[in-house]
Amino acid sequence: MSARRVVVIGGGAAGLVAAGEAARAGAAVTLCEKMPRPARKLAITGKGRCNLTNIAPVPEFIAHFGPGGVFLRQAFARFFSEDLIAFLEGLGVRLVTERGGRVFPASAGARDVVDALVGWVRAGGVMVRTRCPVAALDVAAGRVRGVRLAAGAPAGGAASGGAASGGAAEIRAAREIAAGEIRAAGEIAADAVIVATGGASYPATGSTGDGYRLARAAGHTIVPLRPALVPLETAGDVASRLQGLSLRNVTARVLGDGRVRAEAFGEMLFTHFGLSGPIILGLSRTAVDLLAEKRRVEIAIDLKPALDEAKLDERIRRDLREHGRRSFRTLLGELLPRKLIPICIELTGIEPEKAGHQLGAGERARLRSWLKDVRFQVAGPRPWAEAIVTAGGVDTREVDPRTMESRIVGGLHFAGEVLDLDGDTGGYNLQAAFSTGWVAGRAAASHRTGHD
């Protein structure tokens, strides 16, 4: 029996693992990557450090994806963080676990991960075709039959793969053409196709939403796309005046029309355009969705989350008792970073040179209220090019979580960010890409799928 033919569209994290696993399972695999080289987004993820996964247990891991995270349960049962760690270390990539359970290459270099994965795929015999964009899926009678390449894409060239690299790759391509596997003018026949094209974030890396177009043409529903894990632009100039200031151990809340919708504790950063940093990125999905609903969206920052109103009032009273002769401006140095002091004075309206012992109950209340609730109106998210992941995508209700196969088109599988799955920062999204890619690759190489 001839090997099952699998085409993988997209050479990112999900696509590389899908292609490699399909080849390991005995399939003849072609990987079509439209960029000059695979995994460009993976090479820059985590500011080049590549936060690969997280050692959190499965229930906690899934919770970081919100209600839709349950879709990942079966994929995680088959290939999870401990499997990924063992796999990469087996390829020679030494890993370390840092604060918050985040796992990185010990070299702090994403390129080491990329090189290891690409080398593994090529050594497994995968035909890697770069500069090879896919224009359409070939679907007939409810099954995928292959892919049609975009005009100008190499039908048999620009390929490399393990032992079939260089001239051997050209010989293999010629044999495929002779056998009819590449059917006229840029078509590649396949028994299964895996769409692993990524999302719409970081478009310069090749993630320009191609997979959504292919899936929609095949009859799939695309949940509306929104930037996620994205910095937020704010109205006014307060944030820009605080540019470069990083706050730790604060709580930020997203308010929609004055009501708290989500909150997070940790670190944030002020920028020339507004707010960024881990907790802001984590809250951005909620903020973006509220903006789409035409809500008034604000970020409220609690600068003293460890102190409730009563304890904070006592702290302020103590400072006033002990240092009552000092000016209000000087006393704020005990409470705030230097950059925040002029902002506090301006927004509370308290005379900066007023002696501490002269502050009245109303002024103390204004200070206390401001420390617990510094407001910024959200004007919008930063551009797609600055979003780490995409929210929205192929509706997971139309995909079998056991195989990542379409419930609409036989032999068509999805993996990675093209699916309507987006998690928090901390290694969660890359693990989802690796896990769904592993499952899709294994299933696509099998002669029995949900439609057989």
What can you see in these coordinates?
This protein has 452 residues and is of the alpha+beta class. It has 2 domains: 5-226 and 390-445, FAD/NAD(P)-binding domain (3-Layer(bba) Sandwich); 231-381, Helicase, Ruva Protein, domain 3 (Orthogonal Bundle). It is 33% helix and 23% strand. The chain has 15 helices and 20 strands. The chain has helices spanning 13-24, 40-44, 58-63, 73-78, 81-90, 110-123, 167-179, 210-217, 238-241, 278-292, 309-322, 328-332, 340-348, 361-372, 428-445; strands spanning 5-9, 28-32, 53-54, 95-98, 102-105, 127-129, 134-140, 143-149, 159-160, 187-189, 192-195, 222-228, 232-234, 246-256, 259-270, 274-276, 297-302, 374-381, 389-394, 412-414. A hairpin with a 3-residue loop joins strand 15 and strand 16. Helix 1 runs parallel beside helix 6 (110-123). The relative contact order is 0.18. Mean pLDDT is 91; it is low at 160-184.
- What's the average pLDDT? 91
- What is the strand arrangement across the widest sheet? 9-6-2-1-11-20
Report the sheet with the most strands, covering strand number, pairing sense and barrel closure.
Answer: 6 strands, mixed
- At the fold tier of CATH, the topology name of the largest domain is FAD/NAD(P)-binding domain
Question: Structural class, from helix and strand content?
Answer: alpha+beta
Task: Indicate the overall shape.
Answer: elongated
Distance between the termini: 17 Å
The CATH H-level superfamily of the largest domain is FAD/NAD(P)-binding domain
Identify low-pLDDT runs: 160-184
Percent strand equals: 15-25%
Q: Which architecture of the largest domain per CATH?
A: 3-Layer(bba) Sandwich
Question: What Rg do the Cα atoms give?
Answer: 26 Å
What is the helical fraction, as a range of percent?
A: 25-40%
- Count of separate structural domains: 2
Total beta-strand segments:
20
